[in-house]
Structure formats: structure tokens, C-alpha cells
Design goal:
Strand content: 25-35%
CATH class of the largest domain: Alpha Beta
Largest sheet: 7 strands, mixed
Distance between the termini: 61 Å
Radius of gyration: 22 Å
Structural class: alpha/beta
Number of helices: 10
CATH topology of the largest domain: Rossmann fold
Order of helices and strands: EHEEEEEHEEEHHEEEEHEHEHEHEHEHEE
Oligomer: single chain
Number of domains: 3
CATH superfamily of the largest domain: Vaccinia Virus protein VP39
Number of strands: 20
Helix content: 25-40%
């Protein structure tokens, strides 16, 4: 229990009573004490009923609740949280898997640890905090990770400089908390990828597309494949492993193209089967003369805030409309959105609008999402951020 108390306005406690972990600043009636960013605060309703405790932070989301029970928050509490997250991944067959040794250990609200991401890369744990409270616990988490993994853990890296709010009162630097290895070759479905958590995007690799990469592989045999926004070439490697006729990888970043080419070679593919292009995806789609049998659209988040959602939707619509017009008859389109503020219904409506604009006959083969190590809490629908469709285009 905390000495700092947050009291909500009348009628503003419903979401927390349903175990939604966010308390918005506009719901707060009164604050007792002087909480600093990262402090633990207790949340009560206007009738003095305890609702939960969580980390305080200045901003729209004022409290991120990590316990709905009035219990002591100490080292044992945090240890039990991480151990439970590990047990879940163990039950999924991820912690001792000969074919896949990369997975998400902690998925924020999904694991009752809002503001915390931990990814495991074949012996390296990368911690990324999205709240100051979780960032301040990074050394505590490192000790727990060492207890959980023992000799299997060679590195813990804190990578929160780009994920924390910009206006915090102290300087944040990415740092090694244990070990000093900067990269590792990992296995995903027996495919090899070199992951660099120091210089790579996010924590180094987009683990959330694991099952969707596998599905791309199954559809790739004998097809010409275009992988746009390719980053490290994950979809491209899976397509080549499943005997795609040819694979072209596109990304506006020359650095990403270099990473893709490295992973292609790492898996033993050379020659004419693969070619990469450092060019803007929309420009490539509009100018391309070749008609591909399978196209993957996996853009970065077009919208991270609601105030730019409309603009993002228009971007998704234009991108999908061009791809649907250009894809070969009988082609298959994999299209994704990772924007949390663009929910599944809005995304699918946007793709529908693009389909109407294309004038093609289109069937929906699959509705896609994130894998089980990114499971969202049923009480926090915002955690279901990755949406995808697989379309058959006549």
C-alpha cells in the first residue's frame, strides 16, 4: 500500500472496476500527497473503495495499474510477476524450443505489467520501458531475469531512451545492465536472423509477426513475392525457404536493406532468387512494371495518437488500393496495421474502401493478429494492436 492516494470522480471508476489498467487524468477528483513521476500510488473511488495501485506519471494516462488488490509492492511482487510471465511462455513451448529461441517474455498490460516490454533473443533480454515507474525498476528486473534464466542469460540491455516520454526530468540512456553483447543470431522456425538490439529498431526484431511469416511461407511456393517495408527481411526469408519463384524486398531505409541482404545470405540464399530495393514503398508500387503473385504490406504505425488517425486511415487506403490494382490475377495480398488507435473494425473498413476503389473481386482468406506471447488482457482491448488480412484477388 502507498502513502499517496488518488481519488476518482463519481462515475469514473467503472473501467478500473472492470480491471482496465489505465486511469486517465481527467477522471481524477483529488490527489493526496505529492506523487512524483514513477511513484506508486493507490487509487480509490469517490466512496473510498480501494480500486488498485500503479505507477504515477504526468500525462493523459496518469496511473498504470499493476495490482487490483491491496498488497505490499516489494521485490517479491515483481519477481512473481516475471515468473508468471515466464511460466506462460513455458506453457506455450517457447522457453526450450530447438526451432525458435526468440520470443516476448513480458507484454505490458497483457502480463499485468503496464509500461514494460521484455524480449528474449537466444540468451539476451532486452528491456524497454514505456513508463517511468517501470524504467526505475530495470535493475530489479535484471536480478529476477538472472534468477529465472541462470546460465542461459548472457546479456540484459535496457533500451528505453526512445520509448519514454520526451519531457521527463532526468536524462535516459540505453545501457547494458548485465553482459555486453550487442547482437545475436537467433532462430525462428529454423530460419536464422541476426538481431542487433543496440542499433536495431524497437528491441531489435519484430517478434510479433512470427506466425504471419510462417503463413506467408506456406503461400509462397512457386509464386513471385514482393515484401514491402521489409526491415530485416523476415517475410522474405520465409518465402525463399518455401521455394518462392522470386522474392523482391523493398524498404526506404538503406540500412534496412543491408540487414535484409545479410539475413538472406545467412540462410544460404544467393543469386537471382532475391533482389532488394532501397526505395519508398508507394513509389515502388506505383512505378513497378512487374506483376507479383503475392504482396506483403507491413508498414510502420501510421498513427500513434488519435489526432492523426484520419490521416493514417487515408494512408492505409492509398497503399492498399495501389497494391490491389497492381497484384497479378489470382494473387494474394497480406496487409497489416500495427497502429493501436486504428482498431480492427476501422482497419478492415479501410481495406474494404481500397478494395472498392480497385474494382477487383476479392475474397478474405484469413484474419490475422499477434502471436500468443503478445497476448492481450481481455480487460484491455487496446493491447490488440496488430491487425492483418489475407486477401485473394481475382
Amino acid at each position: 500500500m502507498s502513502e499517496t492516494k488518488i481519488v476518482l470522480k463519481s462515475g469514473k471508476d467503472d473501467a478500473v472496476l472492470r480491471q482496465h489498467p489505465w486511469v486517465f487524468s481527467g477522471a481524477i477528483k483529488k490527489t493526496y500527497g505529492n506523487p512524483q513521476e514513477g511513484d506508486i500510488v493507490d487509487v480509490y473511488n469517490n466512496k473510498d473503495r480501494f480500486l488498485g495501485c500503479g505507477h504515477w506519471q504526468n500525462g493523459s494516462i496518469a496511473v498504470r495499474v499493476f495490482s487490483f488488490e491491496p498488497i505490499e509492492i516489494d521485490s517479491n511482487f515483481w519477481k512473481s510477476k516475471l515468473e508468471m510471465a515466464y511460466k506462460v511462455r513455458q506453457s506455450l513451448g517457447l522457453t526450450d524450443n530447438a526451432e525458435t529461441n526468440v520470443y516476448r517474455l513480458v507484454f505490458a498490460e497483457g502480463d499485468g505489467l503496464p509500461g514494460l516490454i521484455i524480449d528474449f533473443y537466444n540468451g539476451a533480454a532486452v528491456i524497454q520501458a514505456h513508463s517511468i515507474g517501470m524504467y526505475l525498476l530495470r535493475k530489479e528486473f535484471t536480478k529476477v531475469l538472472q534468477d529465472i534464466y541462470g546460465d542461459k542469460l548472457h546479456t540484459v540491455y535496457s533500451k528505453s531512451k526512445g520509448s519514454l516520454p520526451k519531457n521527463i526530468a532526468f536524462e535516459v540512456e540505453n545501457e547494458f545492465l548485465f553482459g555486453d553483447k550487442e547482437s545475436e543470431i537467433v532462430l525462428e522456425g529454423n530460419n536464422k536472423f541476426e538481431v542487433n538490439w543496440v542499433n536495431g529498431q524497437k528491441t531489435g526484431f519484430f517478434i510479433d509477426q512470427r506466425f504471419n511469416r510462417e503463413l506467408v511461407g506456406k503461400y509462397s511456393k512457386g509464386r513471385s513475392v514482393l515484401n514491402t517495408f521489409c526491415y530485416t527481411g523476415g517475410f522474405s526469408v520465409y518465402a525463399l525457404q518455401q521455394d518462392a519463384k522470386l522474392v523482391h524486398s523493398v524498404d526506404s531505409s538503406a540500412k534496412a536493406i543491408d540487414l535484409t541482404d545479410q539475413n538472406i545470405k545467412l540462410n544460404g540464399f544467393e543469386g537471382d532468387a532475391h533482389k532488394s530495393f532501397a526505395i519508398d514503398t508507394m513509389s515502388f508500387l506505383q512505378e513497378m512494371e512487374e506483376s507479383y503473385d503475392l504482396i506483403i504490406l507491413d508498414p510502420p504505425a501510421y498513427a500513434k495518437h488519435r489526432d492523426v488517425r484520419h490521416k493514417a486511415v487515408q494512408g492505409y487506403k492509398r497503399l492498399n488500393a495501389v497494391a490491389l490494382k497492381k497484384i497479378a490475377p489470382g494473387g494474394i495480398l497480406f496487409t497489416f496495421s500495427c497502429s493501436q488507435v486504428v482498431d480492427r473494425r476501422l482497419f478492415e473498413s479501410t481495406v474494404l474502401a481500397a478494395a472498392i476503389q480497385s474494382g477487383r473481386k476479392i475474397r478474405v482468406l484469413h484474419h490475422l493478429s499477434q502471436p500468443a506471447d503478445h497476448a492481450a488482457s481481455i480487460y484491455h482491448v487496446e493491447g490488440e494492436y496488430l491487425k492483418g488480412l489475407v486477401l485473394y484477388v481475382e
